[in-house]
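tokens incoming
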């Protein structure tokens, strides 16, 4: 799975500009279903199987967009000012490199602070692309880019930009490969624009009208930072109980827990005080539906070097497969 993760994470596709990663994913799953389509917002929607008498229509979503930057101003010096696509954390910016979709590369830094130990806000940062003036700058207002950081194999663990949420895309791809004889109609959605208010999942859920929704995403693993949120790397996928956008349906949480126990899959429970996932959009689509989420523990979320444990990744595949291969009774 590391080869797949490398391919996915090294593809540049920020929110709203997912065409490149969509084609990479389409190539991976094209032989797995004859029902593959792209909707108006660019979601890649793959339907597998048919709903039997004791089955459901289940929507499983992982977002394929990543956080990025967008040019807001080019100064006369050639330095580029920018805004964010998704949540960009200023503490990770100085010294980072970015690559734009037109191929231009640059280095991020910031204006001179009054206090050298102070983290500068986003609007005090700029990108140096090597231009000597505004006229010879290869970027214009509206150009978009992402962090420029390659995949690194750390052994049991791996690091890359855009693990959020390409690692969940990899989980869905691997799950699709091993699903057999499910009683459910499974609709896998590689969604767009999750990092900018879950737009892709919102429209996809409205069209699909699922009976049950499952999001697969990352969650911050804060085990090394001393923060009181008990999700650790290497201890299995986290079953979401709550985040800032939704309360998981208690029946879904119980079903996920019992399935993990039955299959002897290590798991954790997650109560998250920042952010949300595509499950929020699914839960309140139309008249609403039971929804939940499986979260892959990830260190340094929304940084250029996010870290996941491959045992957690494989365990998430195992649990998702077990959930989807059998009848569901909530």
């Amino acid at each position: 799975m590391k080869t797949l993760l490398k391919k996915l994470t090294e593809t540049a596709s920020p929110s709203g500009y997912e065409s490149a990663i969509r084609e990479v994913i389409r190539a991976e799953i094209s032989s797995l279903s004859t029902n593959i389509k792209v909707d108006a917002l660019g979601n890649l929607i793959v339907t597998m199987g048919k709903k039997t008498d004791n089955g459901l229509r289940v929507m499983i979503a992982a977002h394929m967009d990543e956080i990025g930057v967008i040019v807001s101003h080019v100064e006369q010096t050639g330095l580029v000012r920018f805004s964010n696509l998704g949540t960009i954390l200023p503490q990770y910016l100085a010294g980072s490199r970015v690559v734009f979709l037109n191929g231009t590369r640059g280095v991020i830094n910031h204006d001179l602070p009054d206090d050298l130990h102070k983290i500068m806000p986003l609007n005090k940062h700029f990108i140096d692309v090597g231009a000597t003036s505004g006229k010879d700058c290869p970027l214009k207002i509206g150009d978009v880019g992402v962090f420029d950081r390659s995949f690194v194999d750390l052994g049991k663990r791996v690091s890359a930009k855009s693990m959020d949420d390409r690692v969940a895309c990899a989980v869905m791809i691997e799950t699709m490969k091993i699903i057999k004889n499910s009683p459910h109609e499974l609709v896998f959605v590689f969604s767009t624009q999750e990092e900018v208010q879950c737009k892709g999942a919102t429209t996809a859920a409205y069209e699909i009208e699922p009976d049950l929704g499952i999001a697969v995403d990352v969650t911050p693993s804060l085990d090394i930072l001393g923060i009181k949120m008990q999700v650790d790397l290497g201890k299995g996928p986290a079953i979401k109980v709550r985040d800032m956008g939704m309360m998981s349906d208690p029946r879904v949480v119980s079903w996920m827990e019992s399935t993990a126990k039955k299959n002897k899959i290590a798991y954790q429970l997650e109560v998250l005080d920042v952010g949300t996932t595509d499950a929020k959009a699914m839960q309140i689509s139309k008249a609403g539906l039971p929804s939940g989420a499986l979260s892959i523990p990830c260190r340094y979320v929304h940084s250029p070097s996010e870290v996941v444990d491959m045992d957690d990744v494989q365990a998430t595949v195992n649990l998702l497969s077990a959930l989807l291969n059998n009848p569901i009774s909530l």
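note: Residues 163-178 form the longest helix (16 residues).
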